[in-house]
Amino acid sequence: MPAPRLLAAALAYALAVPAAATIDDLTTWDFYRDPSDPNVNASMTGSVAPNLAELNFINDLDIPAGYDIGFSSVNANSVVEATSGYYFDSSQDFTIRAHFSLQVTDPAGFVGIGMGIGEDRAGFNSAGIGFGVGTGAINLATYGGAATNNDAPVTQALNLFEVADNNYSGSLTVSYDASSGDVTVGAAPLLGIPDPLAPTQSVTFSGASDLVAWNGDDLVVSFFLRSDDPSIYSNWSGETANADFFDFTVVEGAAIQVPEPTSLALIALGGLAMMRRRS
After folding, report:
1. Which residues have a Cβ under 8 Å from the Cβ of 199 and sit 6 or more positions away?
2. Most buried residue, 35, 49, 77, 159, by most Cβ within 10 Å?
3. Is 80 helix (H, G, I), strand (E, B) or coil?
């Protein structure tokens, strides 16, 4: 093909950037374990479909306290390290919501799920909403808001109620206010079908006090399933804990792709310019 025709064909290809998936396509999210412990990894599975992220603790094993598995919206610990995925610009307001279902069998110890945002998925500067089930001297289930400020924890309980059964569902909401840096997290029960309504309970972490050490970096979204040992509870050692996150929605704002499609086009055009100079 003559050089001008080759250049024209390549230019058309570069400018025809395909319609990208969006952040609500959970197949674009990255599965992670924190920390990476080979003695625990074999007992955990993660699977994902476009509108469903599934996390499991299985095989009746003792999961260490503080151990997470999850999905994050980028494929690295932070946006600057990522080569794919989606994030939110910290200079813009946004609200996200997802539904969850948690089923446990032969429960023992404490297990929790949650959704949060942060400058990194390791949770050094982060805030989110979680739901936990504790089995022990007192059986309970509770929603709670939590945040970290340079890895220092900030927590607020939303509600406390006795365990009725081992199957739970609800919706989780996280809102970010760019002007103040405030993060508001909340929860609501699911009434049989996915419910788009605002949370029935919420708490706010202040950007001016609770989150004062945040750096203004771009923000990653994560879902997680976690073993922990708060207060009178031991780490999770039940038979199974199965968490589904589904119908993830950007209620307000817009997620940004890594890398941005326009950046891909510019890279391609730069390559075409090199081709033309060489032809």
Report:
1. 171, 173, 186, 187, 188
2. 77
3. helix
pLDDT at 109 over 90: yes
100 contacts: CB under 8 Å, gap ≥ 6: 113, 115, 131, 169, 170, 171, 172, 243, 244, 245, 246
* pTM given for the model: 0.84
Secondary structure letter of residue 26 according to DSSP: G
Confidence grade of residue 265 (pLDDT, cut at 50, 70, 90): very low
Q: Which residues contact 276 (CB under 8 A, 6 or more apart)?
A: 3, 7
- Max mean pLDDT among 16-30, 35-49, 118-132 falls in 118-132
Nearest CA to 52 out of 35, 27, 89 is that of 27
For residue 94, the surrounding DSSP H or E stretch is: strand 94-105
**Cα–Cα distance, 162 to 164 (Å, whole number):** 6
Compute the C-alpha angle 30/147/76, nearest 5°.
20
pLDDT digits (tens, 9 = 90+) for 84-100: 999 999 999 999 999 99
Domains of the chain plus CATH, in order, are: 23-272 (2.60.120.200)
- Residue 263: what pLDDT? 46
- Residue 234 carries which DSSP code? P
Ramachandran quadrant class, 149 (left: phi over 0; alpha: psi -120 to 50; beta: rest): beta
- For 266, phi then psi, to 5°, come to -65, -40
Name the β-bridge partners of 185.
Answer: 174, 203
